[in-house]
Structures are given as C-alpha cells and as structure tokens.
Amino acid sequence: MAASRKLASFRLPPLPTVGELIKLYNLRAEKQLSQNFLLDLRLTDKIVRQAGSLRNAHVCEVGPGPGGLTRSIINAGAADLVVVEKDTRFIPGLKLLSEAAPGKLRIVHGNILTYRIDRAFPASVSRPWEGDPPNLHIIGNLPFSVSTPLIIKWLENISNRTGPFVHGRTRLTLTFQKEVAERLTASTGSRQRSRLSIMAQYLCTVHSCFTIPGRAFVPKPEVDVGVVHFTPLVQPQIRQPFRLVEKVVRNIFQFRRKYCHRGVEKLFPEARREELTQELLRQADVDPVLRPTELTIPKIGALADAYAHLCAREAGLFDYEFREELRLKRLSGKGETPADAPLGE
Ligand code: SAM
Fold first, then answer.
1. Which DSSP symbol is given to 109?
2. DSSP 30
3. Is the full-model pTM beyond 0.80?
4. DSSP character string of 87-99
5. What is the interface pTM, i.e. ipTM, of the complex?
6. Residues sharing a CB contact under 8 Å with residue 119, sequence separation 6 or more, in sequence order
7. Cα gap 201→223, rounded to integer Å
8. Smallest Cα–Cα separation from 211: which of 172, 182, 232?
C-alpha cells in the first residue's frame, strides 16, 4: 500500500528543460522523420490527462524525441514506460531521464511500425476482452508520416486481438494532423465522413479531445494537430473480418460524392454487376441513392454481412478487384476514374 502510494506520487527531480536538452545535444528537427517537438510541459501534461489515470500504468510511448511527453507520462504515475524512438540522436537525452526515474523507463531504439509491443509487457497486465481495459496505454505525439499507416495497423490488430491488444482493450491517446483527427471522429452525414471514420468507429469509441495549434510545436508544422482517444469496443459494430469490411468500405467511398450504389457496384465483376448490386442492396435494406457519407455504421455492417453472404455463395468473388479490372481497361484506353484516395482520406 505504502509502496504503491510512493510509486503514484513520484515526480521527476529537476532536470535541464526540454529546450535546453535540444540545445545541449544539438537536436535539429529532421523533416524526414516528421519531427515537431512540444516543449511546453503544461501541454504535454494535458495530452497525458486525456489517457485517464496512469497510476501504476504500463505505457508505450511512440517517438519520445526530446522527451517532453515522456516526462509528463512519468509524472502522471506510470510505473513502466517503454519508449520507441527511431532517431538515435535522442537516446542520450532519454537516458538522462531514465536515470532520473530509476526502473521506470525502458528505451527502445526502433521503428514503431515493426516493434512488437505485445512482447514488451508481462502477461500479468492482460485483462479479459469483455472486462475493463488493462492498465496499459499507448500514447504518442505521432510523426505525421506514420500516423495513418500506424492507426490502420492497430485497428486491424484490434479486430484480431493481436499486437498491443493481446492484453485486452488497450487504450490509445494519439495526435494526428487536424484533418485526419476530424476524419477519425466524423459522424454520419458530416463533410469529413470517410473510410477512416468507419474503420475506426466500428471498432472503437473514438473521442476527439482537443486541438493543438501548430504554433505550439517547434518547428511549427503547417497544420494544427488533434488529440484523439480510442477505446476498443467489447463488440465491434460490424461482425465481419477486417479485410472484408475494409474492402466494402473502400469500394463504397471511392465515389464519395455520388450515390452509394456507384461504389457498391464496384464490388462485382462487370458481367454480373447489376444483378449482384441489386441483390446486395436489397438484402442489406440500403437505399441506393444515399451518399456514402450518409450511411450509418449499422447500414455499412448490413452491406458487409450481405457481401460476406454473397462471397460464401459465389466462388472467387472476394478476390475480385475493380481496380485490377480498371487497370486492364486503362491499358486498352477505356474506363472511368474513381477518387483514387488512400485509406486516410
Ligand atoms: N514526443 C516528442 C514531442 O512530443 O516533442 C516528439 C514528437 S515528433 C512529432 C515524432 C517523433 O517520432 C520524433 O522523435 C521522431 O524521431 C520519431 N519517429 C519518427 N518515425 C518513427 C518511427 N517509425 N518509429 C519510432 N519513432 C519515430
């Protein structure tokens, strides 16, 4: 009891400020690694508060850089913090922090896209999926260059309960370019509603916390930044494999300003397009003249269920890719042009 109170009340001793560390180690920001630093510890404390209580928590921080957010995580009472940083120049400054917080900070020089977070924490952290989330958090002021592929990877991990989610419903508190944060949290009918909104929201409760103006970072990025909190749902709102949901959503949103039947059609080879589109929309009870942005997640779930049903009946259907057919058509000089957007859009 006394020991846990001691752990929770730990504060870092006086250290050089983050700004001083940057000067001391001559840490000029590398644009290639999307380095925009937060030096104001009131702001990093505010980000950390969005995660909820970190008392005695296990935490993985993505891209600690000069360590501002890292300090806030330690001061919030985390017992075990693993930081994953790609740029070796930050390691000496992080070691200084680690010495100031003995036994609390593990430094990994690595790439968060390939790092095995599941192996970083003991099995004792795990909680049943159906129960409360484990006392394990992922927190990061993400590099813009990896934020979208990273959240897509983690969403797939959530759906398969793999990666950081082998331990249960691990919570995420992350920053994104404001526009991406808006897509992640956009509701049905809103202008920002996109593939990313559906993929995130069918698997998680997604909460937009607050916006950080670009001027708060050093160097200042061209955009503002949004802080987003994710808690995986006990039951995903769509009960189909991630890859199938992703395919349905990708096709629906490829003509995002047109009626949804235009995208749905592209799930089917040209020869059977009309017949199977009508059957799918009828089975899912979806109005073909709704726009993709107007479809609720239950409606998209109904489309995914109906598509799964058709795939089970029609051999080879799941492997059909409209884009491949389109590519062949383009080679022969015919074809239409969908909004050729990555999943982030
Ligand atoms: N956390 C620090 C802060 O808030 O001031 C730095 C944030 S900065 C936006 C992103 C950090 O992620 C940089 O330190 C950068 O070197 C690191 N980074 C970039 N790509 C990475 C990757 N693939 N894996 C791990 N770290 C990465």
1. E
2. P
3. yes
4. -GGGHHHHHHHHH
5. 0.99
6. none
7. 24
8. 182
For ligand 1, atom 17, name the residue with the nearest CA.
63
Query: Mean of the pLDDT values across residues 100-126?
Result: 97
Q: Comparing C-alpha atoms, which of 121, 135, 115, 344 is closest to residue 250?
A: 344
What is the C-alpha to C-alpha distance for residues 59 and 47, in angstroms, rounded to an integer?
14
Residues in the chain: 345
- Which one of 18, 85, 212 would you pick to mutate in the ligand 1 pocket, going by the greatest count of ligand atoms within 8 A of its CB? 85
Contact 246, 199 (CB under 8 A): yes
What the block records as the tokens of 345 is 């859009």
* Cβ atoms < 10 Å from Cβ of 335: 13
Identify the residues whose C-beta falls under 6 Å from ligand 1: 33-38, 63-66, 68-69, 84-87, 90, 111-113, 141, 143, 146
- How confident is the model over 32-66, as pLDDT tens digits? 888 899 999 999 999 999 999 999 999 999 999 99
Rounded to an integer, what distance in angstroms lies between the CA atom of residue 64 and that of residue 66? 6
CA distances from 209 to 226, 323, 345 (A): 7, 37, 21
The CA distances from residue 272 to 58, 189, 310, in Å, are 52, 30, 12
User: Parallel, antiparallel, or unpaired: how do β-strands 171-177 and 225-232 relate?
Assistant: antiparallel
Could you give the CA distance from residue 96 to residue 251 in angstroms, rounded to a whole number? 50
Residue with the smallest CA separation from ligand 1 atom 5 is 37
Give the pLDDT of residue 340.
Answer: 45
| Residue 1 three-state SS | coil
For the CA atoms of 306, 312, 313, 315, the dihedral, rounded to the nearest 10 degrees, stands at 130
- Site of tokens 């994710």: 230
Tokens of 224: 């503002």
Q: Using an 8 Å Cβ cutoff, are 41 and 126 in contact?
A: no
How does residue 284 score in pLDDT terms, banded at 50, 70 and 90? Answer: very high
Using CA atoms, how far residue 11 sits from 22, 72, 104, 173, 220, in Å, is: 22, 9, 12, 22, 29
